[in-house]
Amino acid sequence: MIKLALVFLLIAAVAGILGFSGLAGAAANIAMFLFAVALIIFVVLLVLGLTVYKKIT
Prior knowledge:
It is a single-pass membrane protein. InterPro entries: DUF1328 (IPR009760). The chain has 57 residues and is an all-alpha fold. Helices cover 93% and strands 0% of the residues. It starts with a helix and ends with a helix.
């Protein structure tokens, strides 16, 4: 998921340089959304991993 966020960030940068403001904005929004989702999933799994691991051992 982080790879997709980086791909959309690259697309946004290239589109911004070339002057495609609508495409650049959309790609940047998609990149931010994917990064936020990946960050939320990471935090949830981190918390679950820490709590479940302590209960098992």
